[in-house]
Amino acid sequence: MRTLLGRLDGWLFALALLAGAGAIGYLTTRHVFVADWTAGGRASLSPESRAVLGQLDGPVEIVSYANPQGDLRPTIAGFLERYRRAKPDLTLRFVDPQQDPAKMRELGITVDGAIIVHYRGREQRLDELSERSLTNALERLARGGERIVAFVTGDGERRADGQANADLGTFMAQLESRGMRAVPLNFAQVTAVPQHTDLVVLASPSLALEPGAVRALVDYLANGGNLLWLTEPANSDLNLAPLADTLGLRVLPGVLVDGGGAALGLKDPRLLALGAYPPHAITRGFMLTTLFPQVAALAQINSNDWAVQDFLQSGPQSWTEFQPIGNASNSTIRYDAAAGELKGPLAFGLALSRLSPSPDKSQQRVAVIGDGDFLSNTFLGNGGNRALGERVFDWLLGDDALVSLPPRGAPDRVLELSQTGLNILSLGFLVALPLLLLAIGGVVTWRRRRR
Amino acid sequence: MSTLAMTRLELRRLFVRPLAWVLGALTLAWLAWNFTLLLGSFLAAHIRLAALPDGPGYTDLVAVPLLAKLAELAFLVVPLLSMSALAGERREGRLALLLGMGLEPSRIVLGKYLALLVWLLAWLALVLAMPAALAHATAIDWGKLAAATLGMALLLASLAALGLACSAFASHPALAAAAALVLTLGLWAVNMGAQLAGVEGGAINWLAMSSHLQPLLRGLVTSVDVAWFALLAGVCLALAIRRVAAERERG
Could you write out the DSSP letters of every residue in B204-250? Predict the structure, then answer.
C-alpha cells in the first residue's frame, strides 16, 4: 500500500511538473523577445522589407508548391519565418504538386518549390527564394498590382477586347484575372504614351501608322518603356522603320515556310510548329508545342545597347519564301537562294533588354514576335500558345520599380589561407589533438592500475 | 559535503576512467575531419561566393554546420557519458553510501550535473577552437557564432539533464543510455509529421527540439528558445532529484 501511494505520489509530481512547465512555456510564447546577433542583422528582415510589410494591411497567403519529400519545405518555412515574425497574418500553405498534375500545368508550375503569393485576390509569382525577390513581389502587390497594358488602336490592330477571329479578347480576358488591365491607346487622341503605362502592345497593325504615332512610340522606348511588338509578313513596313531602327532589327521580307510541320500533319508550310526553344527567361522549362500561322522572320542588323536574344527559332528546313502561296490550290514552292531567300534556322521571336534609362526601373524589356496570330482567338487554344503568351507578358511586366535592398552579405566571405596553414590546421586538429587526449587518458588509467 | 565537492568527486570519476577520454578523442577526430571537409568545400567556392551581394560566409558555411554536426554527435555522446552517473553508482552501491552519509539528493544530482556540464563545455570549447583558429585569416561573424554556441551550450545542458534523469530511473546504465537516446530523438523529431502536413506553429512544433535549435544556429536568440531549453533541463533535474529522494525514503 505504501509503495503504491509512493508510486502515485511520484506520478502526480511528474504530472504537476509537466503541467507547470507547459504553462510557463505557453507564457513564454505570448511575449517573445528576439535578438539578432548576426553581423548586419542578416538573420532578420531589413528595414526596407519591414516598410513594405507595413503597407500591406490585410492577410497575405503564400502557397508553396514543394514536394513533401526532401528538405525544400523546411527551408522555405525557415526563410519565411522572418517575414511571419514581422507580419503575423502572413500564412504559408504547402501544396504537393504531384497530387494534381493537371492543375499544376494550368498554373504553369514547372519547378519544384515554386511560390505564389496571394493578397486581396491578386497574385505574384516568385522566381527565386530570396528576401529581394519576395519583398519586391510584396511591394508589387501592395502597390495595387493593376498593370496597365496599352494596346495601340486605330491602324487596324488586333483588339484587346474583340471577339473576332483575329482579335485577342480571349487571351486578354484571362490576363485580366492576373491583374493586367488592357486599355486602348489611340494616337489620334493623345500625342504620347501616358505615364504609368507598364506595357505598350503594338499588335499587327494592318494600315500605315501616322508619323506622329511612330515618333511617340520611339520616344516611349527612349524613356525606358516596355513594348510588345507583334508583326506580320507584309510587303510594306507601315512606316515602322524608325521603330525598327531604334531596336536595331529588321523584319525580313517573305513568309517563313517550314517543311518540319508535315510531321505533325500540317498541310500548310506556312504553319510553323515549335517544340524546342532557345534558352531564355521566357522559355525556361517550357516544353509545350506552339503553333504559329504565317510568320515573318526577324534579324538583328546593328548592335546597340540592347542585349538581343532569340526565344523563338524556326527549324533548319525553313526559309523565307518570296513566292505568294495561295490558300485554294496546291502550290509548288522551293528554296531559291538567287532571289535572296534566306535559309533557316531563322529567329522570329526576339527578346531585347537593356539597362533602363528610367531611374525607377532596373531593366527595360522589349519583345518582338514575327506573328500575332498565335494569340488570336482562333489559334490561342493550340498547344502551348496561351502559356507562351502568358510567359511573354510575365517577362515584359516582370520588372518594375524595385525596392532597393542594401546588400547584406556575410563579413567573412573571403578566407586568406596558405596551403601550409591549412595542413598545420587539419593535421593539428585531426591527428595531434585526439592523440594527445588518448595519451593523457592512457597515462591516467595506467597509473591508476599500478597503484 | 557541498554540491561543489560532489562535482569534484564526479569529475575525478570521469577523469580516471578511459571512457571520457576515448569518447572525447574519437569525437574530436571525427569533427576535425568534418571541419576539414567543410573548409575544403568553402575554399573551393569562396571566390564565387564573394561575388554574390548577399552571399553566405565562413561562419555560415563552416563554423555553424560544424556545430550542427556536434549536435548530431551529442545525441549519442551525452547519454553515454551520463548513463552511469546514477544508475552505475546505484549498482555499485555507492549511491546508498552517499545517501547514508546524509547527503541531500538535490546536491548529489546537481553536483553530478555540474560535472557533466564541465566536461561537455570543455568538449564544445575544443570544437569551437577549430573554426576560431582561422580568426586571423578572415573576419568571423562573432555574433552569429556566439548565438550558435549559446544554442549548442543550451542543447548540451538540456541533454545532460535528460541523460541524468534517465540514469536516475533506469536500473542499468545501458538502459539509461538507450532511454536517453530514444527520448532525445523523439523530442527532436516529434513534429516531423506535422511539418510534412504543413502545420505551422502550435504546441507540437513548440515541443520539438529542432524548432528551437535552428533559430539559434541562424543567429536569432529568442526568449522562447532559451526558455524551452531551460524548462527541459529544469523538469529533468527535478524528476531526477525526486527519484533519488524517493530512494532515500525507501532506504
Answer: HHHH-SHHHHHHHHHTEEEHHHHHHHHHHHHHHHHHHHHHHHHHHHH
Nearest CA in chain A to B35: A426
Return the residue in A38, A80, A362 with the most chain B beta carbons within 10 A, the one to mutate for interface testing.
A38
For A306, the grid coordinates are: 540592347
B105-132 helix and B3-16 helix, angle to the nearest 10 degrees: 60
Contact, A253 vs A320, CB < 8 A?
yes
Peptide bond into A279 cis (omega under 30): no
Q: How many CB atoms lie within 10 A of CB A148?
A: 17
Chain A residues closer than 8 Å to B206 by CB: 25, 29
Beta-carbon separation of A438 and B57 below 8 A:
no
From chain B residues 15-34, the ones with a CB under 8 A of any chain A CB are 15-18, 20-22, 24-26, 28-29, 32-33
Q: Are A62 and A92 in contact (CB under 8 A)?
A: yes
Q: Could you tell me how far CA A354 lies from the centroid of its own chain?
A: 17
SS3 per residue for A250-278: EECCCEEEEHHHHHHCCCCCCEEEECCCC
Angle, helices B210-218/B142-169, rounded to nearest 10 degrees: 160
Interface of B with A in 195-224 (CB under 8 A): 195-196, 198, 200, 206, 214-215, 218-224
Q: Which residue has the higher pLDDT, A191 or A264?
A: A191
Q: 119-148 in B: which are within 8 Å (CB) of A?
A: 126, 129-130, 133-134, 137-144, 146-147
C-alpha cell at A107: 498554373
Of A151, A63, A119, which is closest to residue A393 (Cα–Cα)? A151
Q: Does B35 touch chain A (CB under 8 A)?
A: yes
Compute how many other C-beta atoms are within 10 angstroms of the C-beta atom of residue A31. 8
Do A171 and A389 contact (CB within 8 A), yes or no?
A: yes
Cell of A234: 507584309
Question: How near does any CA of chain A get to the CA of B148, in Å?
Answer: 10
Contact assignment for B227 to A25 by CB distance below 8 Å: yes
Nearest by CB: A444 against B15, B47, B129? B15
| Torsion on CA atoms A325, A331, A334, A339, rounded to nearest 10 | -50
How does pLDDT run across A127-147, given as a tens digit for each residue?
678 887 788 788 878 876 678
For residues B244 and B109, the answer to whether their CB atoms sit within 8 Å is: yes
Q: What is the pLDDT of residues B195-241, one digit of tens each?
A: 766 666 678 889 999 989 999 999 999 999 999 999 999 999 999 99
For A116-139, give one letter per residue: b (16+ CB within 10 A) or e: bbbbeeebbbbeeeebbbbbbbbb
Q: Are B182 and A64 in contact (CB under 8 A)?
A: no
When mean pLDDT is compared across A119-133, B16-30, B122-136, the lowest value belongs to: A119-133
Query: Which of the four pLDDT bands, split at 50, 70 and 90, describes residue A229?
Result: very high
Q: Which residue of B has its CA nearest to A437?
A: B25
With a CB cutoff of 8 Å and minimum separation 6, the contacts of B20 are A441, B14, B81, B119
The nearest alpha carbon in chain B to A11 belongs to: B239
Q: Please identify among residues 50-109 of chain B the ones whose CB lies closer than 8 Å to any CB of chain A.
A: 50, 52-60
Q: Is the dihedral of CA A3, A7, A10, A12 positive or negative?
A: negative
